[in-house]
Amino acid sequence: MLTHATALFERLSEDKRRIILDSAAAEFSRSGFTAAKVDLIAEKAGISVGALYKYFGSKGNCFLAVLDDGVRELEVRLNQVLSAQAEPWARIEAIVRLIPEHSRRYAEILRLYHEIGGAGLSSLSEEFCRRFEGMSGACYSALLAEARGAGLVRDDLDERYAAFFLDNIFMSLQFAFACDYYKTRKAVYLGPERDGDDEALISQALEFLKYGLAGR
Known about the structure:
Elements: H1 7-10, H2 14-35, H3 38-45, H4 49-56, H5 59-82, H6 88-105, H7 107-116, H8 122-149, H9 159-178, H10 180-190, H11 192-195, H12 198-214
Helix pairs in contact: 2-3, 2-5, 2-7, 4-5, 5-6, 5-7, 5-8, 6-9, 6-12, 7-9, 8-9, 9-10
């Protein structure tokens, strides 16, 4: 169940819920939260504006429901990777390898995720941030603590700081495959001969992380 949708929305068929959420994601991604038009979302979804408000209560809740829906799939994939029976470095590598494909597939959601961190949306961002970032932060901290216990990273590593830095790298990589500005930024830094080589980017990211976390 989506946190920011009403029980009435949850009683719709799965196909109808998908149409509404996809229509909202497309409009919010195209126009941004402030400029997005509720009537266009309703029109694309084949429902009335009144029905849309009955399903979500407000434009803000509709935006958050779209984000909830999008990041839920990422949470499932992330938990699958982190709970796998593999050593910590293998799980970190699996996360890095997941980023290009997943970010391109869910580019609209990541653009909304980027927007909610910007100025003017603080009323929407705090609750979402504490839930989603709290989950990933706890997972990464536990993973790094396990790695330190196994002697795979530096003894003086503070898992909380390291988890924060690790997630910032992951987040920057996600935006580099989903958001126009960050795509261009990646191209500027890498140059045209390297920009399309996902495998080289993954390999270099892993080397960078290993040196920073393990010192080797």
